[in-house]
Amino acid sequence: MAGEDDKPKAQKKARKLNAAITRLDPEPQRERESKLRSILSNRPSGTLRYGVIMNASGNSDPSRSLPAKEKAQAVDASLSAPDETTFHSALPVTKPPSKEDSSNASGASVRYIRLEKHGEGGMGRVWVARDIALDRDVALKELRPEYVENPTALARFLREARITGQLEHPGIVPVYELARFDDDQHPFYTMRLVKGRTLTQACQEYYEAKAAGTKSTSDLPALLHAFVVVCNTVGFAHSRGVIHRDLKGQNVILGDFGEVLVLDWGLAKLMTGQDALDERHDESEPSDSDDAGLTQQGHAMGTPASMAPEQAAGRLEEVDHRTDIYGLGTILYEILTGRPPFVGISTRDVLRQVLEEEPPPPRQLCSDTPLGLESVCLRALAKKPADRYDAAKELAEAVQQWQDAERRQAEKAMRASEEQYRSLADLIPGIVWTARADGWIEYANRFWFQFTGLTLEQTVGSGWAAAVHPDDIQRVAELWTKSLQSGEPIEVDYRIRRFDGTYRWFLAQAKPVRNPDGQIVKWFGMLTEIEDQKQGAKALERQNALVRLLHQVTIAAYEATTVDEALQSVMDLICAYTGWPVGHALAFADDGSAELVSAGIWHLDRTADFQEFVRATTAIRLKAGMGLPGIVLARQEPVWMADTSRDAHFARTEAALGVGIKAAFGFPVLAASGVVAILEFFTTQHCEPNEMLLQAADQIGHQLGQVFSRRRSAPAIES
Fold it and tell me: pLDDT digit string (tens) for 106-142?
């Protein structure tokens, strides 16, 4: 059978892998086997296959209930035992990741499906994979093909999975499963998939935007915050006896939702005891064509551009937690300058600089680099480990102390500038104000109090809103809330009530003030009166509306087939333009008395509300000079009544008051023979005379007069 033929090959690979794994711990194999048997002596033998390293099938884990020290010994033993059981059986078996289906003819289940390549490093590559069992996307890491037969690379890969899995910290990606493929025995492990960008990419974007004068999604405070998180994550690893040895911006991920994660623990080293993997080096030397930004294997392990001098020289006995401090220093250098401390034409050239030269001071590359941060960075990059910070936490605190000092200095300067600002604000012939970060108004200048009549106590907080026009308050509140949430400047126009009760238009503009960390600490705003501009705009709008009205009247008049139809159409258009609810036409009585009577043509928005007024109007007969129509007839020009209740000439005062009519205007229809009809309009609002409307009404009266002249043969009210 195929399975029987493949067994010797699989056993050979297993022995090679076990030989590599044994280098993780120089302890004699027999003693390790004895420890493992002793620890698990009371456990069923069947639990060893899937329980020692990773519980992937749901079976109980025999090491889960052990004390921490013995549990670690059990795991160590399983990684270096000499026979097929310890490696082949310890790692769960899975069908190779597929792009097509989730099962095969033999019934073996596919746990993962590769979707796309996520990234590639010095030894490994990462895929975005679909976890079929849990219906989620994960990151699947495996060795690059050229390293799968390399025992040292295999051992490092397994150690990376184990160390990453044991370091449970928010800044380290959790490992889900360590397993092997059933076809080629190659190991892989899965972990949480983090979507985002590397710290190096964020730095590049920041400096590109800075050079272009545009805004970046990351700024210096945000990058420094991420750096402090990295320092604390590395400090946690140090407290667990692990050093990273390959810290660089490319190994830090900034997630789309604020996560900051330290990746790639492939070169990690346990600080306790001697590491057998460091005893044996690949014989490869860095080539002149190698990329100094990629992780290198060999005597000098790590990334040349981020490598500490003791790493670059291969002095393994000097490599300790301070080596990581140097790596953190290279990340801070990249944040401050946008590039690594050393760049060269080749890897060999970069390594020479690491060993022999001092890095250029950040201010030499980026003149606006804060002096305090430059000092912190250069100390972390000291050639001698003893001259660096003693702990990652100490480095993080140094950066935070600089941020705190900058914040205090900025706040002090802001207080001084605000005092000066307020003293000058009272001289400004306009309204200025300041608010807290949450939008609480805390100051307004003298002009505000003079204009509104409000006191400071009535204004602070949200009290100012009492002076905003009721029709504007909701719109203003929504825009102000949106700006507070987004941190974007606001510009909005609205009406403010003056001390005498009238409203005037103002344009409000406000911008946030931020501290060195990018946090909003205050809002500064100004109100500029724009009443004249608004009135001018309204006047222009009314003028344009009148032009449209005249155009519509002209079309309606010429399209009408009778004079009655023309009067009705024009009356409806004028009521629509003015918003007035009542329109009415009068003509001369047909008894030759020269008195005006109702022509029976009305526009009524609410017929039932105005029935009394309609009856009173239908019953009257008016001579020249009597009532609004009589005055229009006598003057032969448009007439405006601002208050019908106070006009002695208005004969329908009682009826008008009964239905709430307060103002009116009328104009004559002038034909070649003189006045042939009167149009009158009424509103329930007090309205001052509108000269532009009266001028337009005069033109409309002449247009309708021409219709009378052309339609004398048609049924008309003048007949």
Answer: 344 578 999 999 888 778 899 999 999 999 999 999 9
Identify the architecture of domain 2-192 in CATH. 2-Layer Sandwich (3.30)
- Contact 445/422 with Cβ under 8 angstroms? yes
Instruction: List, edge to edge, every strand of the sheet that includes 441-444.
Output: 441-444, 431-436, 520-529, 503-514, 490-497
pLDDT in tens, 609-662: 899 899 989 988 888 888 889 899 999 999 998 888 776 666 788 888 888 898
- Which is higher by pLDDT, 441 or 185? 441
Name the maximum alpha-carbon separation found in the chain: 136
Q: How far apart are CA 501 and CA 499, in angstroms?
A: 6
Confidence (pTM): 0.53
C-alpha–C-alpha distance, residues 705 and 367, integer Å: 81
Contact 159, 268 (CB under 8 A): yes
Distance CA 57, CA 633 (A): 102
Mean pLDDT of 16-26: 45
CA-based end-to-end distance of the chain: 117
Identical topology for domains 426-529 and 536-710: yes
Q: Strands 93-94, 175-181: parallel, antiparallel or unpaired by DSSP?
A: parallel
Reading the block at residue 259, the tokens are 């996560």
Provide the 3-class DSSP secondary structure of residue 70. Answer: helix
CATH of 536-710, one of 3.30.2090.10, 3.30.420.180, 3.30.70.240, 3.30.450.40: 3.30.450.40
Dihedral pair phi/psi, residue 125, rounded to 5°: -140, 150
Give percent of the chain with pLDDT exceeding 70.
76
The span from the CA of 35 to the CA of 77, in Å, is 8
**CA distance readout (Å), 71 to 63, 90, 166:** 5, 15, 12
Please, which pLDDT band fits residue 366 given cuts at 50, 70 and 90? very high
Beta-sheet strands, E only, within 222-323: 242-243, 252-255, 260-262, 269-270
Span 487-510, pLDDT tens digits: 899 999 999 999 999 999 999 989
CB 210 within 8 A of CB 219: no
Q: Topology of 426-529 in CATH?
A: Beta-Lactamase (3.30.450)
Torsion of CA 594, 599, 605, 611, to 10 degrees: 80
Considering the candidates 25, 76, 219, 246, report the single residue annotated as catalytic: 246
Q: Which amino acid is at 466?
A: A
d(CA 603, CA 680): 10
CA atoms of 78 and 21, how far apart (whole Å): 10
* CA neighbor of 704 nearest in space, from 547, 560, 566: 566
290 is catalytic: no
Q: For residue 297, what is the DSSP state?
A: -
> Do the Cβ atoms of 308 and 328 come closer than 8 Å?
no
Is the pLDDT assigned to residue 283 strictly greater than 70? no
CA–CA separation, 20 and 79 (whole Å): 10
Q: Model confidence over 529-580: pLDDT tens digits?
A: 888 888 887 777 877 888 888 888 888 887 888 888 889 999 999 999 999 9
Q: Where are the domains of the chain?
A: 2-192, 196-406, 426-529, 536-710
Determine the Cα–Cα distance for residues 591 and 603; give it in Å rounded to an integer. Answer: 26
- 53 close to 75: Cβ distance less than 8 angstroms: yes
Continuous H helices in 338-465:
347-356, 362-365, 371-380, 392-425, 446-452, 456-459
Query: In terms of CATH, what superfamily is 196-406?
Result: Transferase(Phosphotransferase) domain 1 (1.10.510.10)
**Bigger pLDDT: 370 or 103?**
370
- The H-or-E segment that residue 51 falls in is helix 48-51
